[in-house]
């Protein structure tokens, strides 16, 4: 029997450099206005094509059954949409903390769609893959889009943005923050008037450095507030996505490392470099 040939594909994390919640759709999904930046903390996925049509995740994450894993769901969705009879063995190397607002699961799904589209020779356009991706999660399209982007809609309307070089101190409070719970609580607080929807930015407005979910998450998870308070001694930090991770932007790597070292005995986290584009993005 021939050994399967695995190829390795990167799946980067993202930060939401700002996150305005501008409304709610009839189906309950929230409208947002957010600048997404890819960072150099990456999961990686080894993929080998199989000719029996099966999709097999060789090392499921503890607590996430293989059938629910976004990598497996992405592969099955592409099989269905393209009519491909080929299968794949997947091996997942997780480095992006889960439930951190860093988009790890969404990025894994996007990488599988991009990689299998090539390996199976499906020939779907980037746009078609993005439309498939949003069925798996609101954060999936931006990873397929492949460039740092301003996102509107629920995250599927994307336009490229150009960002300066930057490094980020990212702290990971040890709480798992479920995205659905946070949006639900935000919605409840809109009804009571405790929070309100933001207005979408006009082209002339400079991006507001705010995350509309932050106050809700800090109320629910004090550990997130503590991490923000610690970073505030060094600048103006923000939460990413629906949390739990918080970050501080720094102009150079030394500064970021110094800030992180001063906090690393109290918080887990890391220093990451902002990327100019997704590592799988090619500009031809
Ligand atoms: C907060 C962000 O991380 C910002 O990047 C994303 O909008 C979240 O995207 P995601 O993790 O891919 O979220 P999904 O898996 O699509 O949605 C999880 C749940 O969060 C809520 N949700 C999510 C995204 C969104 N724009 N509005 C929502 O109300 C919905 O209840 C949904 O059932
Ligand atoms: N490949 C995967 N990697 C991580 N989580 C996965 C994966 N597949 C399914 N999941 C499920 O998705 C949940 C959210 O994981 P993820 O790491 O994407 O959260 P997140 O970074 O907060 O996402 P976001 O910023 O998109 O809200 C996990 O708790 C897990 O149950």
UniProtKB/TrEMBL annotation:
Catalytic activity: 4-CDP-2-C-methyl-D-erythritol + ATP = 4-CDP-2-C-methyl-D-erythritol 2-phosphate + ADP + H(+)
Record's keyword annotation contains ATP-binding: yes
UniProt pathway: Isoprenoid biosynthesis; isopentenyl diphosphate biosynthesis via DXP pathway; isopentenyl diphosphate from 1-deoxy-D-xylulose 5-phosphate: step 3/6
Keywords for the protein's UniProt record, in alphabetical order: ATP-binding, Isoprene biosynthesis, Kinase, Nucleotide-binding, Transferase
Active site, renumbered: 14, 139
Domain GHMP kinase N-terminal, residue spans: 70-146
InterPro entries the UniProt entry points to: GHMP_kinase_C_dom (IPR013750), GHMP_kinase_C_sf (IPR036554), GHMP_kinase_N_dom (IPR006204), IspE (IPR004424), Ribosomal_Su5_D2-typ_SF (IPR020568), Ribsml_uS5_D2-typ_fold_subgr (IPR014721)
Residues annotated as binding ATP: 97-107
Annotated EC: 2.7.1.148
TM segment ranges: none
Keyword match RNA-binding: no
Protein task: Catalyzes the phosphorylation of the position 2 hydroxy group of 4-diphosphocytidyl-2C-methyl-D-erythritol.
Protein name according to UniProt: 4-diphosphocytidyl-2-C-methyl-D-erythritol kinase
